[in-house]
Amino acid sequence: MKKFALALSVLASISSPAMAEGNAEAGKTKAIVCSACHGVDGNSMIDMYPKLAGQQATYLEKQLHDFRSAAQTGGKEGRNDPIMGGMAMMLDDQGIKDVAAFYASQTQTQVEVTDIPELGEQLYMSGDVARGITACIACHGPQGAGSELAGFPAIGGQHANYLTIQLNKFRDTSRNNDLNGMMQDIAGKLTTEDTAALSKYISSLK
User: Where is heme c 1 bound in this sequence (predicted)?
Assistant: First the structure.
């Protein structure tokens, strides 16, 4: 909770300078190589890969910069992923903005999720005070839309399997590019049952 409060205070004190915007039309062309995993419009049909359609452009930019940084430093910085590192290395800064703008301009497809675990809803909406687990709604909102200003991504409607994979990576710290380690801290307190239930609930959000 202290990390969450600190992050918000820092973000509130920063005024972002004007930056060049991405060109979604140019990004559509540059993103063709991404379609095998993420779909032509950013709606991946393979549940181990994320849906990028409708995701915040600034979040997508950060992830691409982090993938590229990891590839350039042998995994010492950024977000290490052998496939995405290679893809990000092919993009310059403007290319990253263009690809992010394209995916942000697309609409996420929705899939009906049944048998939603009550545990998942409980953790998302209320967390678990006894275990020090902050409610997901605090950062990602009631429908999982996140907050672009604060850097919290949209997660509602995402593939449950992808969410589970990422929570597990945060838990074992193989993914560590989260703000102030907030996701690592929370995921480290989740059980395997918690993670599965939470992922399925988030996937059901519209």
Answer: 34, 37-38, 84
Contact of 169 with 175, CB cutoff 8 Å: yes
Q: Answer yes or no: is 34 a known binding residue.
A: yes
Structural domains of the chain ordered from first start: 24-105 (1.10.760.10), 118-204 (1.10.760.10)
Residues 48/122, Cβ–Cβ less than 8 Å: no
Q: Does 84 carry a binding-site annotation? A: yes
Q: Is 159 annotated as a binding residue?
A: no
Question: According to the model, what pLDDT value does residue 19 have?
Answer: 55
Judged on CB neighbours under 10 Å (0-12, 13-18, 19+), 188 is middle
Mean pLDDT split into 10-residue runs, the chain, 206 residues = 47 45 97 97 98 98 98 96 96 98 97 92 98 97 96 97 98 95 97 98 96
Residue 48 labelled as part of a binding site: no
Tokens of 23: 């060109």
Is 136 annotated to bind ligand? yes
Residue 147 phi, psi (nearest 5)? -145, 110
139 is in an annotated binding site: yes
Query: What pLDDT score does 11 carry?
Result: 43
